[in-house]
Amino acid sequence: MENNDQKRYAEIGARIKEARELEGLTQLELAEKLQYKSPTAISLIEAGERRIQISDLEVVARTLHRTVGYFINGSTESASQPSVQIALRADKQLDQEDINRIESFIDALKISKGNDGRRRSDSK
C-alpha cells in the first residue's frame, strides 16, 4: 500500500514540476507563493519524496492555472459529476472561488479513498 502512495505522490510531484516549468516559475517562486521557508520543499515534493497538503495543492493549482484534479490524476476536465453541478447551481450565492474550493474538496475525498470506494482507514 505504501508503495502505491509513493507512486501517487511522485506522479503529483512530476505534474507540479511540469506545470511550474510551463508557467516559467522557479522552485523559489513557487515556494514563496506557498510560504515555504526554502525551495528545497518544492524540490522534495516534485521528486515525490515529500507529501503535499491539500491546502497547499489548492494554492499550487491556482498559481499554475490548473485544477487540483490535474495534479491528482492528470485530468484536464474541469467538469464535475452532474449531481454536483446541479447542487452548485441551486445556490446562486456561490462564486467561482467557492465552486473551486468545493471541487478541490471532492478531489481530496477521492484521494482519501481506495479503488474500492471505501476510505483507506476502513479497508484495514
Separate helix tally: 7
Helix content: 55-70%
End-to-end gap: 11 Å
Number of domains: 1
Global geometry: globular
CATH topology-level fold name: 434 Repressor (Amino-terminal Domain)
What would CATH call the class? Mainly Alpha
What composes the largest sheet? none
Mean pLDDT: 80
Architecture in CATH? Answer: Orthogonal Bundle
Helix/strand/pairing category: mainly alpha
Order of helices and strands: HHHHHHH
Report on the structure:
The structure is a single chain. α2 (27-33) packs across α3 (40-46). Helices cover 63% and strands 0% of the residues. It is globular and about 40 Å long. It is built from seven helices and no strands. With 124 residues, the chain is mainly alpha-helical. 19% of the residues are buried. The protein has a single domain (2-123), classed as 434 Repressor (Amino-terminal Domain). The chain has helices at 2-23, 27-33, 40-46, 54-63, 68-73, 82-90, 96-112.
